[in-house]
Design goal:
globular; alpha/beta; Aspartate Aminotransferase, domain 2; 13 helices; 7-stranded mixed beta sheet; disordered C terminus; Aspartate Aminotransferase, domain 1; about 425 residues
Length: about 425
């Protein structure tokens, strides 16, 4: 008699993994690539990635680093020269004083954010997440077994959460707030006055920390960038995250960093030491060159991003049912598109929500975007404007044509 092998019917995967959602931006970009591999001309507006090449002087520094033999392990929090350059950057751009031992360099700003969340959040801690938010914030909180508490900014306030909303949401279990400015996905930028009001709230709740994601700092169309850590009363409870991907067009290099109070920085270093150790030695030398080179190359890219923003805003004004605030930074538009919910696409498919609309636009217009539910705003959809002008013009021409197939808008809309 042969042995009988019984296969387990339950998943061997951990509960924490099963509870985690896949990154929606990465998932949509994957679908777009799969369609393109079939020979379809897809215009990808789903990924938050500059379409510019990394500036040549940064590439040259990386090549030189290879020739000079920078091929060994680095200290977990980063090479000393880079950490000092980051301190110099904070002093120059943000009027913030940090010591190198308060800086932790990571494999992208995403790892810096995860390090901070995992270092601060205990099971059951509440983490207030300003929405619309970047897709990974809530998932990081879940991974730490925290409880995400979503605060949604209104369209009338450019999706920015107010100090009053924050005050009302804080409980005795609140441990952390998370936000980005300039914001992914909305492009909204908190002013110094708005952050000052938020700092005043935090000052009244000394158990609450703040994780400020400033990765889009240089892509700002309204002037001076304000940092929450600039307010003395809360500076020691603010963890500031930044990186090189957006401002220096270095997405593939994977280089980010955080600045925090000494004990928090040390905790993040400890966390990183058990996961990845120090990031790529060559990348760090490239990052050092980027910072020493100033922000002239970033400013050139921002000129293009501003032009593209204005181009796209002009294009979407001709699309009925798109309610689109003007972004003050980053390289996205985030229109409210609920006027199309309940419509039927050719073939009978019902558009129930922004996820359905994003799939319809991918299959019909061959333009990829990301549904707003991934950002905590299910009535919206995100388009990246980090593409060439001709691609943007063609993309929104296709979008307008495809949306026209869904029929007329509701009677109370123009």
């Amino acid at each position: 008699m042969s042995d009988i092998i019984t296969l387990a019917t339950t998943s061997p995967l951990s509960d924490r993994l099963l509870a985690m959602n896949e990154s929606a931006t990465i998932a949509m970009a994957k679908k777009a690539r799969e369609l393109a591999a079939q020979g379809v001309d897809v215009i990808n507006l789903s990924f938050g990635e500059p379409d510019f090449q990394t500036p040549q002087y940064i590439k040259d520094a990386a090549k030189q680093a290879i020739d000079d033999g920078y091929t060994f392990y680095t200290p977990v929090p980063g090479i000393p020269e880079l950490r000092q350059a980051i301190c110099d950057k904070f002093r120059r751009d943000n009027q913030l004083e940090f010591l190198p031992n308060q800086i932790v360099v990571s494999t992208g700003a995403k790892q810096a954010l995860a390090n901070a969340v995992l270092s601060l959040v205990n099971p059951g801690d509440e983490v207030i997440v300003f929405a619309p938010y970047w897709v990974s914030y809530e998932e990081m909180v879940k991974l730490a077994e925290g409880v995400p508490v979503t605060l949604v900014g209104t369209l009338e306030n450019d999706y920015k959460v107010t100090a009053g909303q924050l005050e009302a949401a804080i409980t005795e279990r609140t441990k952390l707030i998370m936000y980005s400015s300039p914001c992914n996905p909305t492009g909204a930028v908190f002013s110094r006055e708005e952050l000052g009001a938020i700092a005043a709230v935090l000052a009244r709740h000394p158990q609450v920390y703040a994780l400020a994601d400033e990765i889009y700092e240089y892509i700002n169309f309204v002037g001076e960038h304000a940092s929450l850590a600039q307010f003395a009363g809360v500076k020691d409870r603010v963890i500031t995250v930044n990186g090189f991907s957006k401002g220096y067009a270095m997405t593939g290099w994977r280089l980010g960093y955080l600045a925090a109070r000494q004990d928090i920085a040390s905790a993040c270093e400890k966390m990183q030491s058990q996961v990845t150790s120090g990031t790529c030695s060559i990348t760090q030398r490239a990052g050092l060159a980027a910072l020493r080179g100033g922000r002239a190359s970033a400013d050139e890219m921002v000129t293009a991003y501003r032009r593209r923003r204005d181009l796209v805003l002009g294009l979407v004004r001709d699309i009925p049912g798109f309610n689109t605030p003007t972004p003050s930074g980053a390289f996205y538009i985030f229109p409210e598109v609920s006027a199309y919910f309940g419509r039927t696409a050719p073939g009978g498919t019902l558009i129930n929500n922004s996820a359905d609309l994003a799939i319809f636009l991918l299959n019909d217009a061959h333009v990829s975007a990301v549904s707003g539910d991934a950002f905590g705003a299910p009535e919206c959809i995100r388009f990246s404007t980090a593409a060439a002008d001709d691609k943007l013009v063609e993309a929104f021409r296709r979008i307008k044509t495809s949306l026209g197939k869904l029929g007329k808008l509701m009677k109370n809309e123009e």
